[in-house]
Fold these 2 entries.
Entry 1:
Amino acid sequence: MSEANADAQSSVTSSSSETAEGTKAAATTGESASAGLKDDAAAAAAASGATYLVFHMAEERYAAAVTEIEEVLEWQKITVVPRTPSYLLGIINVRGTLIPVMDLRKRFGLAESSRQEEGQDEESRHILVVRILHGKAQIQLGIVVDTVEGVVDLDPSALEPPPRVGQSIDGSVISGVARHGDRILLVVEPEGLLPKEQLDADFDALDEARRSG
Amino acid sequence: MHSDPLETFREEARELLGTLESALMELEQDPSDTNSIDSAFRSLHTIKGSGNMFELDQLVSFAHAVEAVFADVRDGKAPMSTTLIELGLQAKDHIAALLEPGGAEGGIDEELLEEGRRIENELSKLAAGSGDGGRGATEGAAGTGQTEASGARSGGGAESREEEPSDEERTYRITFTPSSDIFRTGGNPLLILQELGELGNTLVMGFSDRIPPLEEMDGEACYVAWDIVLTSSAGENAVRDVFIFVEGTSEVNVELLDEGSVLDTDISYKRLGEILVERGDIDPADLEQAMASRDYLGETLVQRGYVTPERVESALQEQQYVRRIREQRQVSETGSSIKVGTEKLDALVNLVGEFVSMHAHLSHQAEAKGDRDFVAVGEQMEALVRDLRDLSIDMHMVPVDILFSGFRRLVRDLSQDLDKDVALRIEGAETELDKNVIDALKDPLLHIIRNSVDHGLESAQEREAARKPAQGTIELSAYHSGANVVIQVTDDGKGIDAEKVRAKAVERGIIEADRELDEERMLELIFAPGFSTTGEATNVSGRGVGMDVVKQNIEKLGGTVRIESRPGEGTTIRLRIPLTLAIVEGLLAELAGGYYLINIAYIVECIDMQAQERDGEQRFINFRGEVLPYFDLRSFFGFPPADVERSQLVVVSNDEHKIGLLVDNIHDNYQTVIKSLSTVFERVDGVSGAITLGDGTPALMIDVDRLARVNAEEVRG
């Protein structure tokens, strides 16, 4: 919570020069990303598998089918919604629509400290917008990830079921593992990221914690 | 609007069915209400007409059968009866069923068809000719005191239904040829023309072709005749009445040229030849000959001496006149209102809201920069923005009547199902509310009214035993109260025994047995989840939905529900709803680096609060001599305590409880659109929505009503 507050604080006091810098930085990352995209797009045309977006978090590489992703946003200030489970950061405004945002690191239980150790700048993070079923409603959800690498084309044969090792990661979220060159990609299923039962249980736990303390 | 014309048709047809139902309900109260008969007929007729375009044959033929019966009633050929109203309501339901996708097209349900045949069958028994006995009754009921002008009736005898005055303007052609001795009998044709002029717009054309040469002329005789085209809302009889003293001696013909009905939208009017033949000015055979000459018809006719130039001129005038009024009517019908889909309206209100926020941002920037020109532009824009906002909100407002009138049918059906005699009284139906609010109120009100009829009102025997009128009354009323609209459902039934409610709540484990509650709190237990006042749920108010859902729905609208009851006298349920959901004005408060909006409607005042006045445990302050409980919003929302000397306390009130909300700082007033939070956040307490600030970042809206109640609960323990 304190970290999100710090975000809010920084943007409130941010002057116009800072914002300009931010945009510039964003523009450069955008360029590099699109260069990567171009190469991969050529590769994608060659093979006939499905296309995946590759992103990083805590030294792991993840992939999500591009068909699942509505857009990739540069980092923007997130408005905190209080009294929520820690992985729900708040809301952002995407062209007039307010979209809830989830921190994927926190959702996966990855240590927040590692990001700082890696020298990861908060503003270099990206937000993937997905549309998922939550309860009975289709909702848009923003997912905060560390960096977006680009897209790759994965042959269906490259996909394997997730290893059954003592992973801390939920099977309904990671649907498989893929080899791409010498890299291992964890394939993320956005549909599984915010099950209503889980969220309700987390809210119950919060209520309980407040009552007892 | 819908891109799918069939869906648009369905939507319109549903509206028309609503009109039909209202008309039938009116007729139940007053069977002689000719406006309602007309309205029922027109609704059916329009549904039939539009249905034709979509080849919905079942629907069209059914609507036609029903319409035919109402046409007979309108024309006085069949009586209005309770059976017909009942069948009309069934027919309305049947049409609604046929309208559903898959109902009228493709696989038609055999059961549905059977139902249609049954209704048609029943209706045919009521149709004209089968029940002659009823005719007199209807005429008696339909009579409005007009005297039937006998004698000089023109060919328009078939239009007996035109005898009723209505709002619709009709156009008549009157040919008036006074008897030559009209002056000798004390008549004055000019006065008659004047009187006609008082009925409406007239076009008067005089004919001098009967005037003899001077030497043959009788100075006291009248040789002039007139054609008058009259547009008036008066009925044909009223028009004839003008000639009452000269009828029998003078020649008077009254013919209807234009019905002024919505259905008759063809602008073009009869051709000159037709008009002249109709008037008897020329012989049809002559016309045919003249037509063959291919010259201008009027000129040819005059040249050949078939007709005088005056008569041709008069017919031309009539032609132009009728065309003109038809054109005008079409313009006014298409121009006075257009249909816009609610989604477009919602989008507009949303955009206006964004615009309002953007303008606020612009003004702040201008002031911060101190640019006088910039500030001036901002101020000029403010007036425009305000007008735009008011207009867009206004466009979203509709009278609650569209909601209320639907409940007539509900109460009627319920009273039959439950065998209770119930009258529904409606007050304040003209009160306007946001369309979206009205839509959202439908289910909660439905539930409340069901409950009132089912549980609130006693049976006739019980009522008589309690010395009450056998007929129970439900009063549904709406009125303004500040920035809110109050909607109230009152019954004169048995009322609610607060102690019984309490006992039930204890039994259901909703409250502890030893909990002390005042009467109001006891009654409020009805809204607690899992509460139901009768042991077994009846199929009327049962359905597994309780008053708790009603309460939740109203609170989602930012409204409140209150209940009052006196045993033996009745119960009142009062909903207080904000006028519009669209745009609110609030105070922007800063808290832990973020912004929060507090609706200005709740704010009493803001006071400075020094750090030493605050005491971690002590959650009360002395506010002008009264003990005011307050929330430290930082602690409520789980933010770290503020490390500042001064904070601001916003004193708010929801009409029932007054509390303070402690925030870091307060900023300007802010006008904006409220957006709902994603369902992901539905369990978040203390916020009721979100807004976007001028720079595009979202901010949360504080749920003052909720916090006030949470606080009151905590205080009560």
Entry 2:
Amino acid sequence: MVSQTPTGELCSIPALLARNVQVHGAKAAYREKEFGIWQSWTWAQTAQEIRNMALGLMVLGINRGDHVAIIGRNRPALYWSMVAAQMCGAVPVPLYQDAVAEEMAYVLDHCGARFVIVGDQEQVDKVLEVQDRLPNIEHILYHDKRGMRKYDHSHLNWLHDVAEEGRAGHQRVEAELDARIAELTWDHTCVMLYTSGTTGKPKGVVLSNRNVIETARNSSEFDRLAAGDDILAYLPMAWVGDFIFSVGQAYWTGFCVNCPESAATMMTDLREIGPTYFFAPPRVFEGQLTSVMIRMEDAGRFKKKLFDHFMAVARRVGPDILDGKPVSGMDRLRYALGDLLVYGPLKNTLGFSRIRVGYTAGEAIGPEIFDFYRSLGINLKQLYGQTEATVFITQQPDGQVRSDTVGVPSPGVEVRIADNGEVLYRSPGTFVAYYKNPESTASTKDPEGWVATGDAGFFEEGTGHLRIIDRAKDVGKMADGSLFAPKYVENKLKFYPNILEAVVFGAGRDRCTAFINIDLTAVGNWAERNNIAYSSYQELAGHPKVLDTIQRHVEEVNASVAQDRMLSGCQIHRFLVLHKELDADDGEMTRTRKVRRNIVAEKFSDLIAGLYDGAKQVSTRTEVTYEDGRKGYISATLELRDAKVVPVAKSRKEAA
Amino acid sequence: MTAAAQTMPAEGWTTADGRKIGPVLMEMKNITLRFGGVKAITDISFDIREGEIRAIIGPNGAGKSSMLNVISGFYVPQEGEVWFRGARRPPMKPYEVARQGIARTFQNIALFEGMSVLNNIMTGRLTMMNTNIAQQALWWGRAQREEDEHREKVEKIIDFLEIQHIRKTPVGRLPYGLKKRVELARALAAEPKLLLLDEPMAGMNVEEKEDMCRFILDVNDEFGTTIALIEHDMGVVMDLSDRVVVMDYGKKIGDGSPDDIRSNQAVIDAYLGVSHD
């Protein structure tokens, strides 16, 4: 029934929408919790809503090829507005909603958006703040009316009003709209997504209908996703993953997209929905595990014993049962009992009772964390991807899941390793171009369509699974010529619940040093249980007992790093605990929470100097940016500590 | 609007930021309140207009809270008259005043600590429940329908004040700033014509104050609720309010727009102190 040829009917999201109305018309397409109740829309209702919005945009005079910026948290209306824009032949450009006005201004200017569709007053304010510099913006449409009454509405519209106007004026613009829907092809731009950009300004990645739909089809088939599945849409709409999961795969398979009530209620909403297909970056899984462990620490002795006993059983046999490997009958019985008493209720609390396929990506996940979820019977897997690939490069098939690899090439994707160790790929999802940036396009994608990922990695012999070591440009040499792979060490550090972030320095130096960010939840709870008083993040981060704990972690990591002959030079000789959390608002991280190494090194150069000149203490003053964009300073005196390292000189000689 | 107390058009006016101030909603005429020999309020008159934000300020012990208690019907003044919506209000019980459309928050939070946020806010709708205790105990038919309707109204307020994430949390576990917000939510649940806020920002940090200011302005804007508030933070008062009454030792020493009040010598003296030589 479904035509899968590149020239078939299903070559745009609006076409898939029409198909879904035919096939799944009465089935829920979207749910959103509002006013304490899950409101839902069937595919038929969704199609009507989207059509009205598209008609409204036509009435406002949207042109083919216009860019429509979309800013806000995950809400059905904003997803609909993306499809409505596509119907009109325009290109949706979702933006990160937590970006400050300045960052938004760059992207809005670069894509030359004529229309901006936003969630609420907060976003309207940000756009208005920079609007005088952006002559392209003609209309701002908002979804949530609250607080908007007093605004000058000459270029401002309530999205609902626009849809109503579209419905009223449908006879005028309907024919034109239908023509525009019909002319959409495989090569039309489906969406433009700005990469968070660990270096330099964000780049607009142009993805065609072919990129999105073919990738959605391949990945849906890989995990047998179907109309009966449920996902929770809570990750930024500007991120390629959310677009593929909540739009690409959702429209391909017809499954239901559930939007939480607010960011703060995400965990409650997750439990209520119990998604069958779930994606989360490692930090979400880490956060959940940390909170479970904290609560178990506070539980009664009997419960704690029960938990510890059955978790030991789960760790021993759980992953094998999940992978379908042989397990003795007695162990199966134990596991079943554990499921009844511990795992089942725990999964229910976490919202993972119904999960069939779970993915994590973006960063390395700690083996303990990964195994914890898998031992509970949650089919958590890893994938490796990037915006330019329309997410998927490699992913782990069921039954071949490990924490240290990222799996085998996804269906339709070719992967090879360049001579310098960099991972290259070519796939149906390979992006069309960077918008208005032919140089970057040319330097990233060669004429044959191979794209350089910028990551160094290798295929494991025997299994054919890909392993990623680090960013290719971050893999460097130390002064003595030994390999420096900061990410590898940082990941080992971050696997400790007390450590939220770590930044390791050492390229071109004789030894490695590190900045550490404590995890306020874990360390704060520990402080509470040990009667350690503190009044601020800064004070807790500088507490001698906290430093002792972190020092133990660093020394354990050193011992573990020393085992790897190639990387034993990356042991951390000195470290400090930073007085502030690294933050995207201060430019220290990307919006997807990846550390910008160079900016951190530049900003805290005094601290790095201290780490290398042997100082015991360094006083520093740091600029911070508040959520509303204002700036302030915090001053602190940090203690710099030495960590024990395992002597490796001998083994390196042996290796040489 | 510098129209101030003296020359105001009876039908109201429009403020600089486009809000409509209507005719007089409540008028206090020559109120005097005594506790035995102590005069808490002496011969005070002022009015509150529909749609405005009216602040009552003054140093400690000036009689501000007593004034609010007179408005809410908790105290009955020995002299003077209270006019509400064009009619003189006879002495009433506080719950009768509440039924008339006046709701309040308290200087010291007065919530049910053991109950969830949702239930606390539901109590704000008590005066509007029409089913009796037996019907509610059976919770069938009309009682159930009624609860659904009230819940819907309450959920709108929860959404408005952005407290969805603590809906089911017992109030006792909440930090101070959020408790204040829950208290505001409960007062709003009564759908008041006139909302009385007794020191809504007391003890808050700057960020919490900014949030609260925004909510007060939004309430006034979205629901058209008239607001009378007591507040010590002068910055907040001057920013928020349309007109200000200043009290000192139970007497009114100033009444007018924030600008008038700022330049009023009696007010400056009362706040900065003046030597009595």
